[in-house]
């Protein structure tokens, strides 16, 4: 599967990116390069291969550097209002974002 210049234009429009012809050509080349890599990866036979948590765990013991998932800031109306002050648009305390998928 390869993308066309029209695909790149559509992706740029959906992402609200302005790309000149040079940038579109470069984006087309890079995106198609990534798709080629995905196709190569999908063609590799992986039956019977155990999934890895880290690519280096094949060679050595690797511990993931994940922090505890815990609340570090107190919840308050003032804190929420301070965060919402940065929102370009909000409704009922939630950020509103423009529709990006047509």
Please name the defining characteristics of this protein.
mainly alpha; two-stranded antiparallel ribbon; flat
Structural notes for this entry:
InterPro entries: Asp/Glu-ADT_sf_sub_c, GatC. GO terms for molecular function: ATP binding; glutaminyl-tRNA synthase (glutamine-hydrolyzing) activity; transferase activity. The chain has about 100 residues and is mainly alpha-helical. The protein has a domain at about 5-40. It is about 40% helix and about 5% strand. It is built from three helices and two strands. The protein has a two-stranded antiparallel ribbon with strand order 1-2. The radius of gyration is 22 Å and the shape is flat. The two termini are about 20 Å apart.
Task: Give the arrangement of secondary structure elements.
Blueprint: H1 5-14, H2 21-43, H3 77-84, E1 90-91, E2 94-95
Antiparallel strand pairs: 1-2
- Uncertain segments are none
What is the C-alpha radius of gyration, as a whole number of Å? Answer: 22 Å
Backbone structural class: mainly alpha
Which shape, going by the Cα principal axes?
A: flat
Major sheet summary line: 2 strands, antiparallel
